[in-house]
């Protein structure tokens, strides 16, 4: 297990290093610089600004400096926001994004598990078809379409929730969280359904029945845990989906989160924010996948005790 | 002897997407207190289904009791509600399965799995249940039982796991123990150990055992009586000696002839031709007739009733009808019959009864 | 047990010779893998309905712009922001060209003196939404199919080589995948789109850059599973070469998995394209895909909901149908489901 973890950590750093380098060189390869697009600067002013951001140095030097700063957690400064530190810009906007992300994840996974359980235990009944339908819709309808619909009907037409703008505290987070929850909900419910059906047809469930266990005990004492453990493996992809979703959903509900800032930076070519946020997302997702793998090893006794390397 | 379980005219079908599969087509047998009844037959003969239907472990949406009764101490198990059945499973009747590698819950410590039926069926505290579970593990020959209670199934070998499954089955001193091919998935050396263990335990707790197998060697080793199943019916039933040394049904002849033994080493091993009947549309008459060298016209027309051979021995074949012509069983069977006093080939000089 | 022995005519006991080949007869018709899969998928109503929906959308994507009386590019400013109006249906009180203007319900066609029909209405530049929606569908489908095919080709080749040759080759190839797999798709897609000229090709490249990894992992796993199975070993002992083993023994067995996975790649690609267009990284005007149309519609949702509505419906239908079909195929090909 330790050997496996060390290997995983090494890979994690290699991946991050590659992403950081790729980000840097891709940005360098871009035609023009964000400063050159500012028309009012005279050549001398331009040179001054370039010197200030270190843009006049040779690329390898810039690269080395960039990497060194990264190691210290410094993502550089924004071109746009008067030299503000990108790290700080991201941190300032972390709150709303984390709130709707975690709420969406918890809500989606919880309801998804419930739906999946119902579908598996009432296989081929109306319950099953209903929950499958919800799952298919959840997977199929893009979050931005769903969010738009929620916003249009529940907020604009019926006025049940704030339309957006993050001015009404927690109330403002409800619709975005629900919109984000659809993906995890669908994934979790289908996953749990498949796992439960497989587990329920396994020999040890028959043995549990032959012990005299009731339907309830079989579903929750024996089957549920075995079906739930593998769900941990999809948490990584789910988190990636949440990040993707947050970009548009923060946009739609005008939430001052990281995603909204990122999309704005893309439209205004603020490279340092793009680079910083890209790296931030990469670190976030890579760490989540790593934690999930370790977690899986801890909660599944088969892996935990065999000291599994796979 | 006291009958503990009576299966009467049991008929059961599965509803599949190809149609109705008549898996059991009128099965009758009794189980006596303290005896071991072996049910033998090839795959698909309905032996597993029969025992699973006794435990009511078949999927409810696809299986259906068409007819018959399963009387356990006078109660018809086919009529019980789920809740009543749960009180019987694991307490009065329990079961051991074929594959020990998959029959234990992988994410539950084995101690907890053994304690489960104890806590469920007997009004005892957790600490008592724990102590009993340790005793059970010791009983089934698990070394250091105390330490192993907290371990998970994957930390045990196949043989050890089957011992754990047996411990679970015996947790409430059941009156009937159903063993569904309990040694098939095990190594030969481990098989012998498990069989010894089962015989041992049977003496200790005086339970009746239904032992399902396709391995006639195992049957000879453990059974008091044998029921031979074919095509969803019992075709012959009798004591072990009667079945092995005075078989009457052509299918039993085929089964016994296809069993390798040292005596037949130089001969080609016999194989029953053809395949088992398709129970979607079971054949008319004797289901085995199509594969039998001894088939008669009537076999294709009418289902043979049971003919009595002795008080304990019955066989469903028209060959036993008083008007039927005498036929000679295959050579290997005649050789066996020579050793059996009741048979018409008995030579009586050498060896006597086995 | 019935012991009453009844009299039976003697001729009944005549021996009969049974042709034992009769007993060997196989009662179940033998089906090829494909026939079996087809029989299964035919039973799956959702999958069949999906096939029809997909066929309809695909046909409409090509025929739609042609049957519409208006083309997608012509901007008729005087016809801007018209709600849908369909001949025939207008008499039922729906699709009758009535929209709200300054809080009042008015027939906008009458007001703007338009005597033609726009089945899906028009956008802010007076372009026919019907033609635009179907042309957008065309682009979205094109991107999705091309991306899915590229993913499939690279994924199968990479995974196949890695799994089949094994050993050191596999080791190196898998280390590379392990690192690539750690890179979030979103990140790489956005970075690539920033660098490349926006357009269909850029989007396809961005989507396929990491898209093939999933396929390669699945294919590798399958190849590893099959290459050591007895029938492959048997074929090898009979002297079959690598080419024959791959084409005759391994490929047919993993084809189902490849098809299923491709079926799920298509909606993912459709989604990603729409997503990128929605956040402004996708196609640039005048090119339009379902994603850009939805983005345009979103901006005017409060006043012209029809602009958002139709592309959203088409997109959602496409996604649902592909997912349901993928599900159906998975059930049909999954040998575990065999009874």
UniProtKB/TrEMBL annotation, chain A:
One of its GO terms (cellular component) is plasma membrane. It is found in: Cell membrane. GO terms for biological process: transmembrane transport. Residues 94-296 form the ABC transmembrane type-1 domain. InterPro entries: BPD_transp_1_N, MetI-like, MetI-like_sf. The chain crosses the membrane at residues 9-27, 98-121, 133-154, 174-192, 228-253, 273-296. It is a multi-pass membrane protein. Its main location: membrane. CDD domains: TM_PBP2. Keywords: Cell membrane, Membrane, Transmembrane, Transmembrane helix, Transport. Pfam families: BPD_transp_1, BPD_transp_1_N. Belongs to the binding-protein-dependent transport system permease family. This is ABC transporter permease.
UniProtKB/TrEMBL annotation, chain B:
GO terms for molecular function: ATP binding; ATP hydrolysis activity. It is found in: Cell membrane. GO terms for cellular component: plasma membrane. The keyword Membrane applies. CDD domains: ABC_NikE_OppD_transporters. Residues 5-256 form the ABC transporter domain. InterPro entries: AAA+_ATPase, ABC_Ni/Peptide_Import, ABC_transporter-like_ATP-bd, ABC_transporter-like_CS, Oligopep_ABC_C, P-loop_NTPase. GO terms for biological process: peptide transport. Its main location: membrane. Keywords: ATP-binding, Cell membrane, Membrane, Nucleotide-binding, Transport. It comes from the Bacteria. It is a peripheral membrane protein. The keyword ATP-binding applies. Belongs to the ABC transporter superfamily. This is ABC transporter ATP-binding protein. It comes from Psychrobacillus lasiicapitis.
UniProtKB/TrEMBL annotation, chain C:
PROSITE patterns: ABC_TM1. Residues 137-326 form the ABC transmembrane type-1 domain. It is found in: Cell membrane. CDD domains: TM_PBP2. GO terms for biological process: peptide transport; protein transport; transmembrane transport. The keyword Transmembrane applies. InterPro entries: BP-dependent_transpt_permease, MetI-like, MetI-like_sf, OppC_N. One of its GO terms (cellular component) is plasma membrane. The keyword Transmembrane helix applies. Its main location: membrane. The chain crosses the membrane at residues 46-67, 139-164, 176-194, 200-219, 254-283, 303-326. NCBIfam families: Opp3C. Belongs to the binding-protein-dependent transport system permease family. OppBC subfamily. This is ABC transporter permease. It comes from Psychrobacillus lasiicapitis.
């Amino acid at each position: 297990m330790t050997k496996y973890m060390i290997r995983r950590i090494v890979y994690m750093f290699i991946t991050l290093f590659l992403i950081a380098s790729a980000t840097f060189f891709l940005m360098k390869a871009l035609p023009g610089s964000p400063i050159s697009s500012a028309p009012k600067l005279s050549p001398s002013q331009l040179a001054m600004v370039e010197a200030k951001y270190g843009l006049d140095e040779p690329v390898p030097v810039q690269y080395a400096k960039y990497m060194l700063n990264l190691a210290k957690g410094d993502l550089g400064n924004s071109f746009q926001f008067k030299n503000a530190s990108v790290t700080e810009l991201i941190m300032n906007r972390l709150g709303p994004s984390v709130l709707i992300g975690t709420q969406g994840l918890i809500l989606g996974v919880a309801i998804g598990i419930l739906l999946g359980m119902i579908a598996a235990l009432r296989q081929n009944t109306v319950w099953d078809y209903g929950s499958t339908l919800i799952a298919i819709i959840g997977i199929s309808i893009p979050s931005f379409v769903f969010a738009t619909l929620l916003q249009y009907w529940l907020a604009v037409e019926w006025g049940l929730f704030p339309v957006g703008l993050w001015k009404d505290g927690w109330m403002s987070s409800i619709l975005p969280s629900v919109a984000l929850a659809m993906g995890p909900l669908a994934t979790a419910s289908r996953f749990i359904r498949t796992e439960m059906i497989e587990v329920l047809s396994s020999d040890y469930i028959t043995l549990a029945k032959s012990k005299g266990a009731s339907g309830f005990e079989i579903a929750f004492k024996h089957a549920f845990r075995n079906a739930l453990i593998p769900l941990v493996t999809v948490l990584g992809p789910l988190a990636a989906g949440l990040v993707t979703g947050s970009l548009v959903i923060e946009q739609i509900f005008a939430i001052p989160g990281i995603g909204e800032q990122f999309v704005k930076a893309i439209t205004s070519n603020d490279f340092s924010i793009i680079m910083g946020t890209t790296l931030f997302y990469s670190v976030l997702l890579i760490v989540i996948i790593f934690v999930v793998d370790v977690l899986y090893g801890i909660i599944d006794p088969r892996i935990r005790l065999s000291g599994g390397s796979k | 002897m006291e009958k503990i379980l009576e299966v009467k005219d049991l008929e059961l079908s599965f509803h599949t997407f190809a149609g109705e599969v008549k898996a059991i087509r009128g099965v009758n047998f009794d189980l006596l207190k303290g005896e071991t009844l072996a049910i033998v037959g090839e795959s698909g003969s309905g032996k597993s289904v029969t025992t699973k239907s006794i435990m009511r472990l078949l999927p409810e949406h696809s299986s259906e009791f068409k007819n018959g009764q399963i009387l356990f101490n006078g109660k018809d198990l086919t009529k019980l509600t789920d809740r009543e059945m749960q009180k019987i499973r694991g307490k009065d009747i329990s079961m051991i399965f074929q594959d020990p590698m998959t029959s234990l819950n992988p994410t539950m410590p084995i101690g907890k799995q053994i304690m489960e039926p104890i806590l469920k069926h007997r009004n005892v505290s957790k600490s008592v249940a724990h102590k009993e579970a340790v005793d059970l593990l010791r009983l089934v020959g698990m070394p250091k039982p105390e330490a192993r209670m907290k371990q998970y199934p994957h930390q045990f070998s196949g043989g050890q796991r089957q011992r754990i499954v047996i411990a679970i089955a015996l947790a409430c001193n059941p009156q009937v123990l159903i063993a569904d091919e309990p040694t098939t998935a095990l190594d030969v050396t481990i098989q012998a150990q498990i069989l010894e263990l089962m015989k041992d335990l049977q003496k200790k707790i005086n339970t009746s055992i239904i032992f399902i197998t396709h391995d006639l060697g195992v049957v000879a080793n453990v059974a008091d009586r044998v029921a031979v199943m074919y095509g969803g019916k019992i075709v012959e039933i009798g004591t072990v000696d009667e079945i092995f040394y005075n078989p009457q049904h052509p299918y039993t002849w085929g089964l016994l002839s296809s069993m390798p033994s040292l005596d037949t080493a130089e001969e080609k091993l016999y194989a029953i031709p053809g395949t088992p009947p398709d129970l979607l549309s079971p054949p008319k008459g004797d289901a085995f007739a199509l594969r039998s060298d001894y088939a008669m016209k009537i076999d294709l027309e009418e289902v043979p009733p049971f003919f009595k051979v002795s008080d304990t021995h019955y066989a469903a074949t028209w060959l036993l009808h008083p008007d039927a012509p005498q036929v000679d069983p295959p050579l290997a069977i005649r050789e066996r019959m020579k050793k059996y006093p009741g048979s018409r080939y008995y030579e009586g000089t050498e060896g006597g009864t086995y | 047990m019935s012991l009453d022995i009844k009299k039976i005519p003697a001729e009944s006991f005549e021996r009969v010779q049974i042709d034992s080949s009769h007993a060997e007869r196989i009662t179940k018709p033998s089906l090829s893998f494909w026939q079996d899969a087809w029989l299964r998928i035919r039973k799956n109503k959702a999958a069949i309905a999906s096939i029809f929906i997909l066929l309809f959308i695909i046909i409409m994507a090509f025929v739609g712009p042609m049957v519409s009386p208006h083309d997608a590019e012509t901007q008729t400013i005087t016809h801007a922001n018209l709600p849908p109006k369909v001949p025939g249906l207008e008499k039922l009180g729906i699709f009758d060209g009535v929209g709200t203007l300054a809080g009042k319900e008015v027939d906008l066609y009458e007001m703007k003196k338009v005597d033609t029909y726009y089945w899906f209405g028009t956008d802010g530049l007076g372009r026919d939404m019907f033609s635009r929606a179907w042309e957008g569908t065309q682009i979205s489908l094109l991107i999705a199919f091309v991306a899915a095919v590229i993913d499939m080709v690279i994924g199968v080749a990479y995974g196949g080589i890695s799994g089949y040759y094994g050993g050191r080759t596999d080791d190196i190839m898998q280390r590379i995948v392990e690192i690539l797999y750690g890179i979030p798709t979103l990140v790489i897609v956005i970075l690539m789109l920033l660098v490349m000229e926006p357009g269909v090709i850029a989007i396809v490249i961005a989507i396929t850059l990491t898209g093939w990894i999933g396929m390669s992992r699945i294919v590798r796993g399958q190849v590893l599973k099959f290459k050591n199975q007895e029938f492959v070993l048997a074929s090898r002992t009979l002297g079959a070469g690598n080419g024959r083993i791959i084409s005759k023994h391994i490929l047919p067995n993993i084809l189902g998995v490849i098809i299923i996975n491709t079926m799920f790649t298509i909606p993912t690609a459709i989604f990603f394209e729409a997503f990128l267009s929605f956040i402004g990284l996708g196609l640039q005007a005048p090119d339009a895909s379902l994603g850009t149309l939805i983005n345009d519609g979103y901006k005017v949702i409060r006043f012209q909901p029809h602009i958002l509505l139709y592309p959203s419906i088409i997109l959602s239908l496409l996604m649902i149908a592909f997912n349901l079909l993928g599900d159906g195929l998975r059930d049909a090909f999954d040998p575990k489901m065999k009874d």
